[in-house]
Amino acid sequence: MTTSHRHRTRRRLAATAVSVLAAVSLAACGSGGSSGPGTSAAGGAQDGKPVPGGRLKIAFWSDFQACIDPNQVYWIESRSIDRNLADSLTDQDPKTGKIVPWLATSWTVNPDATSYTFKLRNDVTFSDGTKLDATAVKTAYDGLHDLGAKSTLGLTYLAGYKSTTVVDPFTVKVDFATPNAGFLQATSTTTTAILSPATYKETPEARCAGKIVGSGEFTLDSYSAGKSVKLTKRAGYAWPSSLITNKGEAYLDGIDVSYIAEDNVRVGSLTSGTIDIAWPRQPITSADQEVIKASGGTIQTRALPGIIGLLVPNVTAGRPLADLQVRKALYKALDLPSYAKTVYWDGYPVAKSSVTSTTPYAADQSAKLAYDPTGAGKLLDTAGWALGSDGYRHKDGKKLTLTFLTNAAGPGEQLVQDQLKKVGIDYQIKVVTAAQLTPTGNAGDWDLSGGYLTRADPSVLGSTLDQAVSKSYQAKYSQDPATGAKISALFAKGLSTVDPDKRAAAYQDLQDALIDNGVAFPLYDRLQTAGVSAKVHGFAWTSESFLRANDIWLSK
Amino acid sequence: MPRYLAGRFAQALLVLWAAYTVTFIILNVLPSDPITLQLSAGGADISQLTPAQLHDLKAHYGLDDPIVVQYFHHLWGALHFDFGMSLTQNVSVGSLISDKLPSTVTLTAVAVAVMLVFGLGIAFLATYVQWGPARTLLARLPAVGVSLPQFFVGLLLIQVFSFSLTWLPATGTDGWRSLVLPSITLALPGAAMLAQLLTRSLGDTWQEPYIVTARAKGLSRWTIQVRHALRNASLPALTLLGVLVGYTVVNAVVVETVFSRNGIGQLAQQAVLGQDVPVVQAIVLIAAGLFVVVNLLVDLLYSLLDPRVARAGRAA
């Protein structure tokens, strides 16, 4: 153990407290759930012939939500486990974002996206022996809808849900009162996973604690919140989605999940062979990546789809960011390539739009986000903020101070502070507890706040920024009424049609408008990383950047 | 003695009630609404709920009553060991606690035993051994123990004994092997403090005239140390031990995080940050209960070790 290593360890541990603090804010990342095109870093063909047997040991960082029911969880790690327990009507191709058949063999959608009809496979059973048919799907969707606020993701996925109708034993129709063009993508998520009808007779609490039965390639043996999850392979499984190479039973005998909060201990457990996969929430640091690679392991990486790491302004009259010129200057003052390189590592993707690059319909806005400190200075001069002798800008005797509201300040915030100081902006970091974040945000005494959310559909931006839908403090304070109306209209346009070309055009306009009006400041792209031991083959991501274990096998 | 006991017991109950009430007030004064907290934890917003849904949620958690009613309702529940539902985890506080308490209790019990063995052992040797350098070394050792941060010691032990030598597991709560490293880590600062105090007070006791008398009577160093010095020197150490047992529970937060043990410490940390009022209340009550019980035991032991204490109590 070198001195620098020790030092790092120590800082890391201090960071543990911060990361738990971050837990609640990170939970937001869990909301929304979908997927988008992306690099599926599968172990792939070079691995040779799969050998059945063995148990995969995987360690996540936390089980904050303490729930395993796919219909209720928003927590990313739980959804990764659930993906291997329960199947959904459709699947989403991580490479193209295309929705492909799974439990449903085909589907039709009416033009205004209010009615969806699915034809189901007729050879699927739940692990309790019940057959999966149209009635089971109706029970599941009604059950998900009945969860109401207990399923925070379900609330948005089923927005406008009216009813599910059994058309014939293997055909169901889902109707909405208002257009929900995002629903097809929602049917591919773990949140809308179809559980056995018997499951919906249990209370939501019992389901959370593990009283769930799915039709997945694994069954749930035991779940002890925050401690462990044990899965066993389902004998006779034969209905994976078309994205999966292995058409039959899983190669693994089972999966053992544990939770290790400390990064250093998790990485050490991987390199010493105690676990096979180390799966943190924050990207594995470049130093830890070296340690893992030195032990023969690999780093698997996939960009999470959804809202990128954003700064959202408060444009309330009287605050500095009420002036569009100051917001424009802020774009020029932020050096995004150096942020990606400094906070993460050389080669880490640079933020290019308000959604991540793996989100369908993502549009490259990098020309508008270019770093130009001189240009920023000029804009601020024009806006009346003159550089003072203290290195900061002033106007009418007031210093140009931007207060950033967060519940978990990291190195990124300090870097932004440094970058903004170069153009004379005083960036203050206001840290509150997770519990105080929302009340403080609602009070509006801040200039910038952060946020991100995972879902492979650009409509996810609406949950943070659409004033017509979201009552979040970010939607409320980031746009004046005129801008808000314009932005909301663009959101509505994107959701009212299932035509890909029309949606692409609507979301291109939306992403342009968000930058042109200074509504959102893209800051950092989001990567999911996993350290994988050399004995694991066939590792694969879902489009939601969750674990897909169908093709995984272990070398002896 | 029974009157003394009854008095102490009433005092203990008063402390518990005060701890409960103060926590309740503090947590409810904080400017945040539990339902908003719970929803924002899930990335949702309170505005997404219909008034009926909101009402159901509030009723579910008993948040629709006036605050005074809530207080007495919760207090009455607490008297029956019913702490209501967790606001962030969808389950009853009772089941959360009973799920996590055993591993923390085992850990702290073993840690306190380790603390006693090391604390007593080092102090005993430091004053018993007659070779100068060994005495100095033993007397200085606790200072090192006190100054090492616990998380650092924990990570160091994991590196050496789990990752390099692979003798003991780094994580988990399975079997006695998983208790070794965390209990040593947890015991270390307490053991060091105990050893420091006891070394000092044993050293002082050896200067007392009655020790000279004992030596003059021809008693061996061993007999004097065990029968006379230790008993008299242990009074301040006993007081410290009472405090240390309490600290052990506090330090469990750090140790449980480092060793990935899913116990009360981790639960407390999550509950505080998430403002999960019922869970925090239950944990505060448990911690207060522990303090009260340990201090009661210490007081009783005091009167056994030093008859003057009991006599003074009777006189008063």
Describe the protein.
The complex is a heterodimer of chains A (556) and B (316). With 556 residues, chain A is an alpha+beta fold. Chain A has 17 helices and 25 strands. Chain A has a seven-stranded mixed sheet with strand order 8-9-10-1-11-21-12, covered by helices on one side. In chain A, strands 18-17-19-13-20 form a five-stranded mixed sheet, sandwiched between helices. A four-stranded antiparallel sheet of chain A has the order 4-5-7-6, covered by helices on one side. In chain A, helix 9 runs antiparallel to helix 11 and helix 16 packs antiparallel against helix 17. In chain B, helix 8 runs antiparallel to helix 10. Chain B has 13 helices and no strands. The longest helix of chain B is centred in the last third of the chain and has 38 residues. Classes of the chains: A alpha+beta (556), B mainly alpha (316). At the A-B interface, helix 1, helix 4, helix 6, helix 7 and helix 13 of A face helix 2, helix 3, helix 7 and helix 11 of B.
Give a short synopsis of this structure.
The complex is a heterodimer of chains A (556) and B (316). Chain A has 556 residues and is of the alpha+beta class.
Name the beta content range of chain A: 15-25%
Cα-atom Rg of chain B, whole angstroms?
A: 24 Å
Note the overall shape of chain B.
Answer: flat
Counted up, domains of chain A total 2
Individual helix count of chain B: 13
Instruction: Supply the CATH class of the largest domain in chain A.
Output: Alpha Beta
* β-strand amount of chain B: under 5%
What descriptive keywords fit this protein?
heterodimer; A: 556 residues; alpha+beta; Dipeptide-binding Protein, domain 3; B: 316 residues; mainly alpha; 13 helices; 0% strand
Secondary structure layout plus pairing:
The complex is a heterodimer of chains A (556) and B (316).
Chain A: H1 3-30, E1 55-60, H2 76-82, E2 90-92, E3 99-101, E4 104-109, E5 115-120, H3 134-146, H4 152-157, E6 161-168, E7 171-176, H5 183-186, H6 204-208, E8 218-224, E9 228-233, E10 254-259, H7 263-271, E11 277-279, H8 286-294, E12 298-303, E13 306-313, H9 324-333, H10 336-344, H11 373-382, E14 386-387, E15 393-395, E16 398-399, E17 401-406, H12 411-421, E18 426-431, H13 434-443, E19 448-454, H14 462-465, H15 473-478, H16 481-495, H17 500-516, E20 521-524, E21 527-532, E22 536-537, E23 540-541, E24 547-548, E25 553-554
Helix pairs in contact in A: 9-11, 16-17
Chain B: H1 2-29, H2 34-41, H3 51-60, H4 67-79, H5 93-128, H6 132-147, H7 150-164, H8 177-205, H9 209-216, H10 221-258, H11 264-273, H12 277-305, H13 307-315
Helix pairs in contact in B: 1-12, 5-6, 5-8, 5-10, 5-12, 6-8, 7-8, 7-10, 8-10, 10-11, 10-12, 11-12, 12-13
